[in-house]
Design brief:
Shape: elongated
Strand content: under 5%
Largest sheet: none
Distance between the termini: 64 Å
Number of strands: 0
Structural class: mainly alpha
Radius of gyration: 19 Å
Helix content: 55-70%
């Protein structure tokens, strides 16, 4: 198998990853709408899917430990950074009843 054939045929399709990304994008766009920062969440989603479904995933499943570690680096460092960049500068305030407050008899 030559490298070009491997790059074309080694895609690993994961319906669970696609559903999770679709749900995350739906929640993001429903909550924040479209803005200039929305490109960051799209980049995070694309990088997440590429990490889990590209030939990198096929290599990481049993051939190369370095490919497995490259997946970890992308999933732990790059995807969350892109997702955080997608948040607006000021996020909406939380509802008043959602925070945990200390009981009146205890010191905070």
């Amino acid at each position: 198998m030559n490298p070009m054939h491997f790059l074309i045929t080694a895609w690993v399709w994961s319906p669970l990853a696609i559903v999770c990304v679709a749900a995350a994008l739906f929640i993001y766009f429903r909550h924040f709408g479209w803005s200039r920062r929305a490109w960051w969440i799209l980049a995070a989603a694309a990088l997440f899917l590429l990490t889990l479904m590209s030939p990198l995933a096929a290599l990481a499943q049993g051939y190369l430990f370095s490919a497995h570690m490259a997946q970890h680096i992308l999933l732990v460092l790059a995807v969350p950074a892109f997702a955080l960049m997608a948040l607006p500068a000021q996020t909406p305030a939380l509802p008043s009843g959602c925070c945990i407050r200390p009981s009146p008899g205890r010191a905070a």
